[in-house]
Prior knowledge:
By secondary structure, the protein is mainly β. The chain has strands at about 10-15, 40-45, 50, 55-60, 65-70, 75-80, 85-90, 95.
Amino acid sequence: MTTLNIRPLHDRVIIKRLAEEQKTAGGIIIPDSAKEKPTEGEVVAVGNGAITSEGSVRPLEVKVGDKVLFEKWGATEVKMNGEEFLVMTEDKIIAVMTK
């Protein structure tokens, strides 16, 4: 797992995308020009939580190490330590994948 020296603020999370599929289920190799970026990733850092309208902090539901599905749009791509990551708010995460 990647260790970062950065902590996102409030309800933001940092996600590392999972590897792209190289072939279709039928075994056809996908050329680079046709590949879509995966919408699955691993949470590598989380903020302290969302601030509610009452001013209290609501802890995030996701935690470091969770494998998640997220929306295609709405994340900020950043490069840290030579690797690409996504920074997004927790509400852009659709689901936590279970084993």
